[in-house]
């Protein structure tokens, strides 16, 4: 099974890019973030025409997450991260596919930090960590994936000294990711490439993509049942160079015997 995650940065505005990528790479499951579209504006028919079923949780102008499946049935489990009934941001959706729980998330950016947005980021992280622990306690294998808005280590960021005060790289953020992963999750891409520079995001400014001044902020965390099934993975970084593309590139993994 090939599973991908892609922050599309506007599903309607960048629909041609998304459809081209789906056609060229054909992931079995694709998790999307930052739809920037309300529920009724999600391009369901175009996705269906491309050969994918979809579930989504949209929000006007901001956020939004979706899970696409090429063949397997999608059974929605939840579309809200537990822990704060007053949080109305569309940042989480969870489905069962082929006996696996696929959790697609868009973790808050948190800038400027410190401040209320950073506090919200850390609280969201705490809620995610609590729910992730509950997922691990279940019997089903789990893939936790999406835009985490965190660079876990200095290897994951171009010129880390420039990012020390950024919400994506502050010690509190990295500590939160370490605590989450420490529950028993496997960071799939870093496991496959333990010492290599791997980026998933390049800013639009200052020719970041051309200079390869990137960040690794889109991640796959695998529950223990899936650790030994991981056989491949990577970043479709060429997609970042397409015309009118997102500032993120798709990230993917392959799991055997699923």
From TrEMBL:
<keyword id="KW-0378">Hydrolase</keyword>
<feature type="site" description="Important for catalytic activity">
    <location>
        <position position="218"/>
    </location>
</feature>
<dbReference type="InterPro" id="IPR037493">
    <property type="entry name" value="ExoIII-like"/>
</dbReference>
<dbReference type="GO" id="GO:0008311">
    <property type="term" value="F:double-stranded DNA 3'-5' DNA exonuclease activity"/>
</dbReference>
<keyword id="KW-0479">Metal-binding</keyword>
<feature type="binding site">
    <location>
        <position position="248"/>
    </location>
    <ligand>
        <name>Mg(2+)</name>
    </ligand>
</feature>
<dbReference type="GO" id="GO:0046872">
    <property type="term" value="F:metal ion binding"/>
</dbReference>
<feature type="binding site">
    <location>
        <position position="34"/>
    </location>
    <ligand>
        <name>Mg(2+)</name>
    </ligand>
</feature>
<dbReference type="GO" id="GO:0006281">
    <property type="term" value="P:DNA repair"/>
</dbReference>
<keyword id="KW-0460">Magnesium</keyword>
<feature type="binding site">
    <location>
        <position position="7"/>
    </location>
    <ligand>
        <name>Mg(2+)</name>
    </ligand>
</feature>
<feature type="binding site">
    <location>
        <position position="247"/>
    </location>
    <ligand>
        <name>Mg(2+)</name>
    </ligand>
</feature>
<feature type="binding site">
    <location>
        <position position="147"/>
    </location>
    <ligand>
        <name>Mg(2+)</name>
    </ligand>
</feature>
<dbReference type="InterPro" id="IPR036691">
    <property type="entry name" value="Endo/exonu/phosph_ase_sf"/>
</dbReference>
<dbReference type="Pfam" id="PF03372">
    <property type="entry name" value="Exo_endo_phos"/>
</dbReference>
<dbReference type="InterPro" id="IPR005135">
    <property type="entry name" value="Endo/exonuclease/phosphatase"/>
</dbReference>
<feature type="site" description="Transition state stabilizer">
    <location>
        <position position="149"/>
    </location>
</feature>
<feature type="active site">
    <location>
        <position position="106"/>
    </location>
</feature>
<feature type="active site" description="Proton donor/acceptor">
    <location>
        <position position="147"/>
    </location>
</feature>
<feature type="domain" description="Endonuclease/exonuclease/phosphatase">
    <location>
        <begin position="4"/>
        <end position="248"/>
    </location>
</feature>
<comment type="similarity">
    <text>Belongs to the DNA repair enzymes AP/ExoA family.</text>
</comment>
<feature type="active site" description="Proton acceptor">
    <location>
        <position position="248"/>
    </location>
</feature>
<dbReference type="InterPro" id="IPR004808">
    <property type="entry name" value="AP_endonuc_1"/>
</dbReference>
<feature type="binding site">
    <location>
        <position position="149"/>
    </location>
    <ligand>
        <name>Mg(2+)</name>
    </ligand>
</feature>
<feature type="site" description="Interaction with DNA substrate">
    <location>
        <position position="248"/>
    </location>
</feature>
<keyword id="KW-0464">Manganese</keyword>
<protein>
    <submittedName>
        <fullName>Exodeoxyribonuclease-3</fullName>
    </submittedName>
</protein>
